[in-house]
Design brief:
CATH class of the largest domain: Alpha Beta
Radius of gyration: 21 Å
Number of helices: 11
Strand content: 5-15%
CATH topology of the largest domain: Spore Coat Polysaccharide Biosynthesis Protein SpsA, Chain A
Order of helices and strands: EHEHEHEEEEHHEHHEEEHHHH
Structural class: alpha/beta
CATH superfamily of the largest domain: Spore Coat Polysaccharide Biosynthesis Protein SpsA, Chain A
Strand order of the largest sheet: 3-2-1-4-7-6
CATH architecture of the largest domain: Alpha-Beta Complex
Bound molecules: uridine-5'-diphosphate, alpha-D-glucopyranose, manganese (II) ion
């Protein structure tokens, strides 16, 4: 259907990588719908080019930010003010009906049947099931609705500082009015629910059609060794089922990375898109500003590069120390410079 589309959003390169995996997962499951990516102007040229290869339409939109630090702080997600940008999806009026999907979702089977549903259909939020989760929802683009949504957010703000608060305020009868607008949870299986209700996941998880990597730690926050097919990262905070995470990374490594490599040419494409090999381990030698002489006590316990490489290969990175997120970020920053 030419006037039906799946829509996602990415305001930066990290979420753009998520959008690439989502787009590929929809294509691999033979969707007959159009694919649209809304992006912020900050998304780099190479990432925009890859998105254009996967999506039918890539549209640059103004980034809207709620600026509501107080409510965002309550969710411990100061980064989510920009999710107001999602509201732009109502302006896609060349489509009669759309399904919005967060860039941190991935499709596990064909979900074109969602287009049989009406605005506003969505699955319950795992944290407060009388609210819908705005990571997956069916809507009808309309300039009129868009205007009303902006008006609503100006007048009432958002109770969570992000789009989900506004949308639940605006479509406030979702919980009670029409059960056909309640999507089954399998269309938006929040990865955190796997741990909060494991027996239900064991019973029903096999039917999942969409996995949503909801929360602070995203698939791209981890690292992956494509040869060993192993994921490492801040495992102590792992909130995601390892097999979904592995599916995400397998698709990213096999289908997205080759396209990114083409776009980045000779430049290390790590600059925009994280892909760790062992040779890219964060070491005292290659992290700028991390001189061993500046931490004399640590010298005794510090392992040689060879020993550290061995530990990495055994999946025992020093997440709290040398291989901490901050050090990894510093290394990425050196690529960016
Ligand atoms: N998003 C974005 N840039 C950001 C933050 C969020 O483009 O800096 C978009 C992206 O599509 C993302 C969605 O807004 O999937 C909602 O944010 P997120 O998925 O991080 O929220 P969560 O589902 O974890 O609550
Ligand atoms: C949620 C949703 C996400 C939304 C965010 C902010 O947890 O999963 O899609 O952007 O809240 O409202
Ligand atoms: Mn999300």
């Amino acid at each position: 259907m030419a006037d039906h589309a799946f829509v996602t959003l990415a305001t930066n390169d990290s979420y753009a990588r998520g959008a690439m995996v989502l787009g590929k997962s929809l294509r691999n499951n033979n969707t007959s719908k159009k694919l649209v990516a809304l992006i912020g102007p900050q998304v780099s040229e190479p990432c925009q080019s890859v998105l254009k290869r996967i999506f039918d339409e890539v549209k640059v939109v103004d980034v809207l930010d709620s600026g509501d630090t107080a409510h965002l702080a309550m969710m411990k997600r100061p980064d989510l003010g920009v999710t107001f940008t999602k509201l732009h999806c109502w302006t896609l009026t060349r489509y009669s009906k759309c399904v919005f999907m967060d860039a941190d979702t991935m499709v596990l089977s064909n979900i074109d049947e969602l287009f049989d549903r009406e605005e506003l259909s969505a699955a319950p939020d795992p944290g407060w099931p009388d609210c819908f989760n705005s990571g997956v929802f069916v809507f009808r683009p309309s300039v009129e609705t868009y205007g009303k949504l902006l008006e609503y957010s100006t007048e009432h703000g958002s109770f969570d500082g992000g789009d989900q608060g506004v949308l639940n305020g605006f479509f406030s009868d979702w919980a009670t009015a029409d059960i056909s607008k309640h999507l089954p949870f399998i269309y938006n299986l929040s990865s955190i629910s796997i741990y909060t209700y494991l027996p239900a996941f064991k019973q029903y998880g096999g039917n999942a059609k969409v996995v949503h990597f909801l929360g602070k730690t995203k698939p791209w926050s981890y690292t992956f060794d494509p040869k060993a097919k192993q994921i490492s990262g801040s495992v102590q905070e792992a909130t995601t089922h390892p097999s979904f995470l592995l599916d995400w990374w397998t698709l990213y490594a096999s289908a997205v990375v080759p396209m990114l490599q083409q776009q980045y040419g000779d430049q290390p494409f790590h600059s925009g898109c994280v892909e760790f090999q062992h040779s890219d381990m964060v070491t005292s030698e290659n992290v700028q500003g991390e001189s061993s002489a500046s931490h004399p006590q640590e010298l005794q316990t510090r392992l040689s590069s060879e020993e550290r490489k061995e530990q990495w290969e055994q999946g025992q990175a020093d997440y709290m120390g040398m291989d901490s997120f901050d050090n990894i970020k510093r290394k990425l920053d050196t690529f960016l410079k």
